[in-house]
Design brief:
2 copies of one chain form a homodimer. By secondary structure, the first copy, chain A, is an alpha/beta fold. Helices cover 46% and strands 16% of the residues of chain A. In chain A, strands 2-1-3-4 form a 4-stranded parallel β-sheet, sandwiched between helices.
């Protein structure tokens, strides 16, 4: 079975997309074509969206599913009249929330021009800049300003996790590679010693590491399976010896790693 | 008025957080304390969550709001019995979806071990690696592999937008700075000329740019307001002359810029 799903929003549509997508994955026997329609913030755009949905309904021979996060009631009303199962991700919760809180909702779009958002924006940019400046041990200056320092062997997933922590949560995250030199001495790299309490480790299945490294440098010592096994074993031993918490990144997504570290390391997110 | 809001999930909790947070912003007169409780995936954890919510209800003297994305019905049932307004972000939509599609949902948690997810993971990592390798004009090799190349003056927001495109959508995005040398000739930087069709510009209000640059290098020519005005004016003139689409990043969040570029440049996202 094939169906089309639309995510319609007067903003970026990311919320409708995330919720809608995870709902769609609950129906494994259905093949969905997913389309995001962001910034539907005028009556004209709402009407065009309805036309697009109705055309799709005819082409598919079945009603599309439409997930909406539309705050403006007039726009919402128009989109809700499309020939589709329209699932309103906001309104369904607003009424019980108004009753619980005893106040009316403001029905205003988004929060992009609020003072809080400008602050969030700056925090995010600063966190990204910090992550980039402290990627892969590039600089160990200002590590005292880091919220967390990720360590692990090369290609264990440190960089994307660091960037996700910065972009999504505003966390100041550095990352520093553990290399074969560190395993000889079985000591932490000296620049990290003062920041032991901020360290968090990533580890990875050696076979998986071998595959990842082989894509980069096929046939190298670096990618060699025995070498990957050695590096992973030594890195884990070093982290255990030093009492540094670590997680196995092998079967986790970047979001999962970042969220797990956020909570296990008790970090305070700086943005929502 | 002060209330506590919980986001409870058997996964990362990011979906519950995004939806819940945007619903909370509709109630501007209420101050919310927001707490995310991820990976609630056992009966024991569910019971501990209920205790935490009930304790908070007592301390606050008011029921918390609880946004859940819990797939396991047993866990869901336990959490729903907390002394709170529990808003189930999944179940409320699952029933109408089952009716519309004529199939039962699988009620399985997440998608982290599916084949699709491993593919998504690789695509995301590759996109991040590409973005890092091609940040700020670092390398212009392989620009033919870019989905999009962001251009703009220094500190106009290119880097975080590039990284967001990579992490969230799997887009291969490079970025390249426009510098005063480019404005003398009013020509595109030569390495960009073959990729004109992939270029997308960011611009920014000169006063805002002045503030941002002043934080970095106070009192410098670089941060000087007149220089910022010159650079922005020339960059915009160059982009107009070359027919390169551009957006004003001044009052947009990183998500908004990335989403706008995704749609206006007609990019195909590689991951959901």
């Amino acid at each position: 079975m094939r169906r089309t799903a639309f995510f319609v929003s007067d903003r970026t549509g990311i919320t409708a997309e995330m919720l809608g997508h995870s709902l769609l994955t609950q129906f494994e026997t259905v093949k969905f074509t997913e389309r995001t329609l962001p910034y539907v913030d005028t009556i004209e755009k709402a009407r065009a969206v309805v036309e697009q949905i109705n055309r799709t309904a005819e082409q598919d021979g079945a009603r599309p599913l439409v997930f909406t996060t539309l705050v403006n009631p007039d726009i919402n009303r128009i989109v809700s009249q499309a020939n589709a199962l329209v699932l309103d991700c906001m309104e369904v919760f607003i009424t019980p929330m108004e009753q619980e809180l005893g106040v009316r909702s403001s029905h205003t779009v988004g929060r992009s021009h609020s003072a809080r958002d400008v602050v969030d924006y700056h925090r995010r940019i600063e966190a990204v800049n910090f992550a980039l400046a402290h990627d892969d041990g590039l600089s160990t200056r200002e590590l005292n300003q880091a919220d967390v320092v990720l360590i692990g062997v090369s290609r264990s997933g440190k960089t994307p996790t660091t960037l996700y922590l910065a972009l999504q949560f505003g966390i100041w995250a550095a990352n520093y590679p553990l290399t074969p030199e560190d395993f000889g001495s079985m000591r932490l790299p000296p620049p990290l010693v003062p920041y032991r309490s901020k360290l968090y480790g990533l580890t990875i299945n050696p076979e998986r590491l071998h595959l990842i490294r082989s894509e980069r440098r096929p046939g190298s010592k670096y990618a060699d399976l025995a070498n990957c096994e050695f590096e992973v074993r030594e890195a884990e031993a070093l982290m255990r010896q030093e009492g540094i918490p670590y997680i196995d990144a092998t079967s986790m997504s970047v979001e999962e790693m970042a969220t797990t570290i956020l909570h296990q390391a008790n970090l305070t997110r700086h943005i929502y």
